[in-house]
Structures are given as structure tokens and as C-alpha cells.
Amino acid sequence: MASHIALEEAGADYELVKIDLRRGEQKTPEYLAVNPAGVTPALVADEGVLTENLVIMGYVAQTHPEAKLAANDSPFEFGQMQSFNGFLASSLHPAIGPVLFAHPPLEGEARAAALAKALARYDLVEHHLLKGPWAMGEAYTVADGYLSVFTRWLRLNDLLDKERFPKLNAHLNLVQARPAVAKVLHMEGLHPA
Fold first, then answer.
1. Less Cβ crowding at N or C end of the chain, within 10 Å?
2. 94 C-beta neighbours (distance < 10 Å), count
3. Which residues pair with 51 in a beta bridge?
4. Sequence-ordered strand ranges (E) for the chain
């Protein structure tokens, strides 16, 4: 959803192809020809295929500079945004994923330990990484759409405690109020959390 939000926010001309992960469509020969790793998302551009949300969102921001989706007043600011997105991709996502999506589901002490680890990562975003009101400060960037995916997951599972995560709750509300995000949610058959 994060890459989809970036494309919509950019006003990009794109064709959305839904891949049903539950049905294993990411493992079909047709999709493996696009991304041999068999994971989503993948963006087919004129130059070739890009994979991974972090990369796709950075590409969309750089190819649509008029949309101002990247903190790119300097290479360092762009790097800070990519660092934020990298944390979401390599630290937050792997921590919360097993808590919410493991098959079979985690239970008992294993779930409690995994949840504590994941929530500690959300604490880090709440207290140190989220500058506010947007991820990088005063301007919306692709990092905001990306962060909203993970906070949405928590809220849908009654884990985005308003007392513990006031900034993350406020941020999710801001992101979901954006017209492009509302359109993406509708296109994906989802509702605001």
C-alpha cells in the first residue's frame, strides 16, 4: 500500500495490478518473471523493474519532483528520509509482522515477547524518529504513507494505544485524511482505521 500511496500522491500515470498473496499469485510463473523473489511490491518502469517499498517510493519521489514527496532540499535530507524508511522496512516491519501475520499465530509467551519487541520499536518512532506533524517535520513525504501502513495495522488490532502513542495516532489521522490516501484505501477495498 505504501508504494501505491506514493504513486497516487505523485499524480503518476500507473496501472495497478493486484497480486493476491493469500492465493499465492506472487509465486506464479507470470509474477516470478517480473520479480524472481516472488514478493511484492514491484514497479515496472520504462528502464526496468524496481522492487521493495523503500526503493519504489524514493524512485517515485525523484521522478515526480513537482509533487514534493521527498525531503530533498539536500542529499543529506533525502538520506534522512531514506534512513527513516529503512528503519520501517528493516526493523519495524520484521518486528510487527510475526505478531500480526504468523501462521500459525504466535501464542502465549512467544506472542508477548514478540509484541513487546515490536512495541519498543514503535516507541522509538513515537519518541525519537517522528518529527511531527509529518514524519520528517513540516512537509508530507513518502515516509508518511509508509509509516501509516504500520500504524494502521496496530490500530486495526487495538494495539495503537492513544496514551502510549499520541503522536503516532495523530499522524495516522492526518495521513488518512489526505485525498490520495482515501483514494488508495478505496481502490484496495479498505477503510480508514
1. C
2. 12
3. 42
4. 42-45, 48-51
Task: Report the C-alpha gap between 179 and 185 in whole angstroms.
Answer: 10
CB atoms within 10 A of CB 148: 26
Given a contact cutoff of 8 angstroms between Cβ atoms, the answer to whether 74 and 17 are in contact is: no
H or E segment and range at residue 71: none
CA neighbor of 144 nearest in space, from 157, 158, 131, 160:
131
Measured over the CA atoms of residue 23, residue 59, residue 95 and residue 178, the dihedral's sign is: negative
- DSSP per-residue string spanning 30-79: HHHHH-TT--S-EEEETTEEEESHHHHHHHHHHH-GGG--S--SSHHHHH
pLDDT tens, 67-98? 999 977 789 999 999 999 999 999 999 999 99
Residue type at 36 in one-letter notation:
P
Model pLDDT for residues 25-46, shown as the tens digit of each residue: 999 999 999 999 999 999 999 9
Neighbours of 39 (CB within 10 A): 14
Q: Which of 52, 56, 18 is nearest to 190 (CA)?
A: 18
What does the alpha-carbon distance between residue 33 and residue 65 come to, in Å, rounded to a whole number? 30
| 167 grid coordinates | 503522536
Q: For the whole model, what pTM was predicted?
A: 0.96
